[in-house]
Amino acid sequence: MRVVFMGTPDFAVGILEEIIRAGHEVVLVVTQPDKPKGRGNTMQFPPVKECALEHGIEVFQPKKIREDANVEYLKKYAPDIMIVAAFGQILSKNILDLPKYGCVNVHASLLPKYRGAAPIQWAIINGDEITGVTTMRMDVGIDTGDMIAKRQVRIACDETGGSLFDKLTEAGAKLCVETMEMLEQGTAEFTPQDNEASTHTSMITKELGNIDWTKSAVEIERLIRGLNPWPSAYTHLNNKTFKIWKARVADQKGDYQPGCIARVSKNELLVQTGDGMLSLLEVQLEGKKRMDAGSFLRGYPVEEGIFLMQ
């Protein structure tokens, strides 16, 4: 097939690579504009752009893909299909109707659950045991189109946002190519979504990582895993940001106030939550590198009874 690929972050890179490996002709990659990053505001390419350039594929970076001039630009490439994966812009109907086989979206959830942004992180934060990827024929709604294929992925008890991201990227890439084959062979079946069963997720922000210690230890531990590696869960210690990268729910209950350091031993730092204790296993104090609890306590001794501030 002649493919126009639309995507921006790392999740889309693996899908683009798989389409190329499968022998399809990617005639254009559409991605978001470059953005400044870091203290020097150095312009950084989106990951999909970097991948496209490595393969010698033309890149198009419109601020608003829906504008008439941009739609006309896409028409020049006469794609058989458009594959969309975490592109970050809404497509108009005249774009959706352009390719022979339509626009197919690769979405990192088992639709209709978790429409919208950040389905990977929210699956962990909400304590799901199973998630997956869905391919769908796009319509003018947000993740509302008819489903074509699904693939389930089990969420491990120690799963992080980063590790689940990798699993779903691999699953999504393979499912995308299989979906393209079904469309080309005329064997694809289209299943409408149950809108009444749909759920929506919100964007992940840095503020979401600010730990509310009055919540249960289980909820906080899931938040820590879901936001690892970005944007990370955090609290404050001695007026400095104190990131928590890994923790486990402790057996002890304790009778301290939530957010209080409840127990300190040679290699263990326990904090009181709303219903028990959380053992902090890997932490990072502002301006320092990540370290396990034992290394942290040897370098920064703390005492029981100190409050970690929200």
Overall description:
The chain is an alpha/beta fold and 310 residues long. The protein has 8 helices and 17 strands. The chain has a 7-stranded mixed sheet. Strands 12, 13, 14, 15, 16 and 17 form a 6-stranded antiparallel sheet that branches. A two-stranded antiparallel sheet has the order 3-4. A hairpin with a 5-residue loop joins strand 16 and strand 17 (291-292). The radius of gyration is 22 Å and the shape is elongated.
| Mean pLDDT metric | 95
Instruction: Note the quaternary state here.
Output: single chain
Write down how many β-strands occur, each being a DSSP E stretch of 2 or more residues: 17
The share of residues in extended strands comes to 25-35%
Describe the main β-sheet briefly: 7 strands, mixed
**Share of residues in helices:** 25-40%
